[in-house]
Specification:
14 helices, about 20% strand, homodimer, alpha/beta, 2 domains, 8-stranded mixed beta sheet, about 400 residues
């Protein structure tokens, strides 16, 4: 499909903005029967929905709850099942670690083991990030033959391990048994990862020695081993100068993964919109990320999610005033407040352009969008529609 | 897809009920313009639809009319095109024949041939089941080298032939020329079925001799040769203790085929609901089958189908009172009264749970469900949604 698209791309000067509201979709409040989107006052989004074609996006498959990685890959036009991205890679992207081709990354936990080596706490009592920083210092001194060992603290008990060197392989089993028991040795899941498995097992043995007096964080668990996936590059497939604007590092990392340029911005959405205005002339496509909706949803805070939606809505006129040719508003997955986590529910999408063919939908919500002309569609179908609406695709066949 | 799902399954104590109304979907009455579902008074199903997410299921592909086998496999989460089940196997399941792995089953017809061996009636004038029973007795005496020959009467002119023994193959052509002509010899469609082809041809030759004086039923036609398919087991894929409640043997057989436990029940739907109540604690998932809708549709009896729907509706409160976490109401295919047969039309589905995200649909009918948030979807997408709503799947990717 990406090859087909790439072959149909024609150049144009049209400008595209993708506004990704993280965790956008919600569920009805048990008392009012209205979802966060239905409860919020969204005059600008409703006006845009009235002029737009609307629908619902499914990012991975029906019933499957997407992580933020697969969710955004879908929005960018990639089939998330065809291009899996390991947890280790996402964790590294999340701290803006400069992961390079061939590096093997894993997500690490400090944990507690007893004298017999049995895990008694998989999260080492959620040690503070400060303690974590001290302990990762110790692990950085570990030397392994022929590879560089990179260890970076994340938050609380979490860290990232990266091995860098020639001929490594990321097809490795996890050391985390998921239940209490003893940590498992890493096994290579492919012959090309056998040397890496040995190196990782040596790292774990050394780590145990160096942490022996560091209870409760006296051992490590490693999972989600992976290497940077070889993703087709977004700017080349779609012939777009593409820029990403995101206050959170993980989303900058995902954009970088597909070859978008990451623009420097501030920590709030007002900063992001300012960055958009500032770089308006320099790019054809802007991925602009809004985090607050997901944060509120994951906290299970219905009212906070309503407010986050309303705050976002207030920025819409400013973005429209820039004169984009295509505007998409959607998200990477649902985060319903009643679930207090990501959800599998399809995510409202509106696609606005001069040629979108407005449908009867007059409000931007889960239920209203269900009646839109886009229907319920895989998220990776969005980019071809965006490109068409930007008059950047020629016809297929004569 | 089933592998992906199996990898995401987490345990929970939630309970799921699938209510399968056989041949549920219909078509508008030519006089009133209203379908059976629209004509029936369904207060309990309409209330459930109001609280549920609704849509339409396509079991095989657009325009393809599903048999009950593929229709139910779809509801159970299997792609019916990937897991075909031969007619011989379905016929054997339909009479609750204890078909075993390796057995080759075929669907048989008694037919009439003239002195030159040409078929003059493919159904032998639809002889009575009693005559059939007498004739199958004669065929049971046929002996073939190295295999057991099992012949079971079905109804009127139909019977089941099963060969049991080591090294048999079910990839065989049919003897039924489908038009009038002479019965065809069986050919092996794969080398591993060659010995079986020889054995079947010997059976046919012997059968002809034994039936020579039995006109109009003086010959047999055999088709739909197949062996039990190796289906991934439903309880293992989905991590569910799964039970089937069905008054009709064919549906019990289908459930057994995917590894569900078949619960003993009576002959009416009230018995089935009693069985459901009785076994409520013992299982996580219940497939409950309702036959009357299909029967009326296949009889072309619009009013009887309306009544069948209304009778079903009356049981809904009793089922809800058990406190399921997820309720699905749908069917295995359409059986529109105006067609008096199975139809290719998509089948209404409602999926109710605390997290389903109610959509604007307020009635359980073909047209109302077309506006639901589930959209028109392949039936095999239902199980992932059911699992998600039962909070029995973790997210994909980080």
């Amino acid at each position: 499909m990406l090859d087909l698209l790439a072959g149909l791309v024609v150049s144009n000067t049209t400008k595209i903005v993708l506004l990704s509201l993280d965790g956008l979709a919600g569920l009805p409040h048990l008392k009012t029967g209205q979802s966060e989107m239905e409860t919020a006052s969204l005059p600008n989004l409703d006006a845009l929905a009235t002029e737009a074609a609307c629908g619902l996006l499914r990012h991975v498959a029906p019933g499957i709850t997407p992580g933020s990685g697969p969710g955004h890959l879908g929005l960018f036009g990639y089939d998330p099942l065809r291009y899996p991205v390991g947890r280790g890679v996402l964790e590294a992207l999340g701290i803006e670690f400069d992961l390079r081709a061939g590096d093997v990354a894993a997500r690490g936990n400090f944990c507690t083991v007893d004298a017999a080596g049995r895990i008694t706490d998989r999260r080492a009592g959620r040690i503070s990030t400060e303690v974590n920083i001290g302990l990762t210092e110790r692990l950085r001194d570990i030397r392994l033959p022929g590879v560089e060992v990179l260890v970076e603290p994340v938050k609380e008990h979490r860290f990232v391990l990266v091995l860098r060197g020639a001929g490594l392989g990321g097809r490795l089993s996890e050391t985390d048994p998921q239940t209490l028991g003893t940590p498992l040795p890493v096994r290579a899941l492919e012959p090309s990862s056998e040397r890496t498995a040995d190196l990782v097992n040596r790292f774990v043995a050394e780590a145990r020695q160096r942490l022996t007096d560091a209870a409760p964080a006296n051992m490590v668990l490693l999972r989600g081993f992976d290497q940077l996936p070889a993703l087709p590059r977004f700017p080349e497939i779609f012939g777009l100068r593409a820029a990403a604007i995101a206050a959170y590092p993980m989303y900058r990392g995902l954009a970088k993964l597909v070859g978008m340029e990451v623009l420097k911005t501030g920590s709030g959405f007002a900063d992001e919109v300012a960055t958009l205005r500032q770089h308006w002339e320099g790019y054809d496509y802007f991925f602009v990320h809004y985090k607050d909706t997901d944060k509120a949803g994951e906290d299970g805070d219905f009212d906070a999610k309503v407010s986050a939606l309303e705050r976002f809505d207030a920025f819409v006129p400013e973005i429209r005033a820039l004169g984009p040719d295509v505007i998409v508003v959607s998200g990477d997955h649902a985060s319903p407040s009643v679930l207090a986590s990501h959800g599998w529910q399809p995510v409202p999408v509106l696609l606005w352009s001069r040629y979108c063919g407005a449908d009867p939908v007059k409000a931007f919500s889960e239920r209203a969008c269900a009646a839109g002309t886009l229907g319920v569609m895989p998220a990776q179908h969005l980019m071809p529609l965006v490109m068409a609406n930007a008059l950047r695709l020629t016809k297929y066949g004569a």
